[in-house]
Amino acid sequence: MKDVNENTNGNSQLFSSSDITNNTNWHTENNDNFEIKAQNWSISNAESVISFYGYKISIGDNNNWYCISDKLSGESPKNQQISVSFDAIINHHNTIAYFVSDHYNTVVKLEDNDKNRRFNLTFASLKEPISGKIILLSQLGDEIYHFGMTNVVLGKDETINVKSEPKDIKDIKAILTSL
């Protein structure tokens, strides 16, 4: 893993999960079995050498997913929430909502809250805000689509309104491809 802050040594924890779903349970790995150290690394092949600062971990023969994060301090992290309101014509039966990060290869589906007519994204407090877009995609009938998108910055509790408008499916695909 590259692009690691050089102040992370000694404060990292390895987590694993064998199944990635909407409700993934990450388990703490015993750091005695894994050396987690950020340092300068070089990877080479017959044509070039790439150097970077980052983690290198040996994970053995399994199919688990791994995540490296700061060690937990013992304090419960404060959760924050983005709440998205929307036009009256759409609802949680005909619409899906996503957060798409501007700087990370990350897309997160928002949870629908039909009782409050909102979509919500709940996340742990962030060290740095993360900019991205909230996207609403609705199908109101055969070949009748509405699309809405607005910029957002994750980093504090916030309620935003996303306006949607009729769009042709080809236009929606072009917008999504450009993200």
Oligomer classification:
single chain
As residue ranges, the low-confidence spans are none
> What Rg is obtained from the alpha carbons, in whole angstroms?
20 Å
- Classify the secondary structure makeup into a structural class: mainly beta
Distance between the termini: 23 Å
What does this structure look like?
- The protein has 179 residues and is mainly β.
- It has one helix spanning 169-178, and strands at residues 12-17, 27-28, 38-44, 49-55, 65-70, 79-86, 95-101, 107-109, 111-113, 118-124, 130-141, 144-154, 158-162, 165-167.
- 6% of the residues lie in helices and 49% in strands.
- The chain is elongated, with a radius of gyration of 20 Å.
- It has one helix and 14 strands; from the N terminus they run E-E-E-E-E-E-E-E-E-E-E-E-E-E-H.
- The chain folds into two domains: 12-70, no CATH class; 79-178, Immunoglobulin-like (Sandwich), CATH 2.60.40.1120.
